[in-house]
């Protein structure tokens, strides 16, 4: 059950979701340090798993494959949050919407820094 020549079956992915959701969220929260980001990471991971289900080769368990996607999704969230924080720090070091070289910071760039 869970694998076929075409990859993972949707019902098998759903079974992992229903059976392991609390554990996956707990681990994602430990990785991200943020409950909401973790829940989003898990949802993103399952969307990826469904989308890429034909790539599951069955060389390991479906459960392990999904875990790996969740961990990568949570790590990607951490990296994206760190990049956003770095951009925000750079923008906050500007003086009144002006860069250190005197050029104006575009509003679109400042808005992109908002959480």
What this model shows, in words?
- The protein is elongated.
- The longest helix is centred in the last third of the chain and has 31 residues, at 62-92.
- It has 115 residues and is mainly α.
- The chain has helices at residues 10-32, 35-51, 62-92, 107-112; strands at 3-4, 7-8.
Keywords:
single chain, 4 helices, elongated, 115 residues, Rna Polymerase Sigma Factor, Chain: A, two-stranded antiparallel sheet, mainly alpha
**Which class best fits the helix and strand makeup?**
mainly alpha
Mean pLDDT over the full residue set: 84
User: Can you count the helices?
Assistant: 4
Head-to-tail CA distance between termini: 42 Å
**Based on the structure given, which CATH architecture is correct?**
Orthogonal Bundle
Characterize the overall form: elongated
Q: Tell me the β content.
A: under 5%
List the helices and strands and how they pair.
Blueprint: E1 3-4, E2 7-8, H1 10-32, H2 35-51, H3 62-92, H4 107-112
Antiparallel strand pairs: 1-2
In short:
This protein is mainly α and 115 residues long. The chain has helices at 10-32, 35-51, 62-92, 107-112; strands spanning 3-4, 7-8.
């Amino acid at each position: 059950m869970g694998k076929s020549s075409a990859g993972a079956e949707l019902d098998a992915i759903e079974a992992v979701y229903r059976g392991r959701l609390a554990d996956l969220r707990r681990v994602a929260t430990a990785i991200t340090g943020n409950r909401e980001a973790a829940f989003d990471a898990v949802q993103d991971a399952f969307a990826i798993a469904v989308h890429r289900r034909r790539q599951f080769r069955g060389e390991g368990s479906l459960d392990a494959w999904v875990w790996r996607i969740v961990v990568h999704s949570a790590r990607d969230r951490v990296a994206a949050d760190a990049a956003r924080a770095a951009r925000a720090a750079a923008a906050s070091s500007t003086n009144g919407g002006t860069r250190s070289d005197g050029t104006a910071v575009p509003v679109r760039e400042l808005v992109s820094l908002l959480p």
